[in-house]
Design brief:
142 residues; alpha+beta; Adenine-n6-DNA-methyltransferase TaqI, Chain A, domain 2; 2 domains; four-stranded antiparallel β-sheet; 3 helices
Length: 142
């Protein structure tokens, strides 16, 4: 089922359905991104709910380094599409058994991501403020 949803991204391709990108080269292989990144796979979801579910699932797998044993290559490491699908399917089968459901924590993960985005914006504003203070100080010394 996932084989039809995860594809190798071709440069210049536009997607009109909900999607996200999965990095496939380097030590961060398997990391999902909401925006385009070079050397990536694309996950094509049917709706936003499915996209968010798989995005957070892959984010958790990447943070816990589930893709590290599957890295290939001696100079530039990469992960194969089949390995990403296998790890994801294996995890889905083990997580959604019994009383546990990943959707229980999905809302909390979305809130954490929103807070993280907000903090990043605040840091960017503080960096801009610091630069403007330096500019004002050094500009006045000439």
């Amino acid at each position: 089922m996932l084989k039809s949803k995860i594809k190798t991204h071709k440069s210049g391709t536009m997607y009109h359905q909900p999607h996200f990108f999965i990095l496939n080269k380097g030590l961060n292989s398997g990391k999902p991104f909401r925006h385009y990144v070079c050397n990536s796979f694309v996950f094509l979801a049917d709706d936003e709910q499915e996209r968010d579910f798989y995005y957070f699932m892959l984010l958790g797998l990447w943070e816990l380094r589930f893709f590290r044993p599957h890295l290939k290559g001696s100079v530039i490491e990469y992960v194969r599409l089949g390995d990403v699908i296998d790890v994801l399917e294996e995890t889905l089968n083990s997580v959604n058994t019994g009383n546990r459901s990943f959707s229980d924590v999905q809302a909390a993960l979305a809130q954490i991501e929103a807070l993280q985005t907000n903090l990043q914006a605040q840091l960017n504003h503080l960096m801009h403020l610091r630069k403007s203070l330096f500019y004002k100080y050094f500009r006045g010394k000439k």
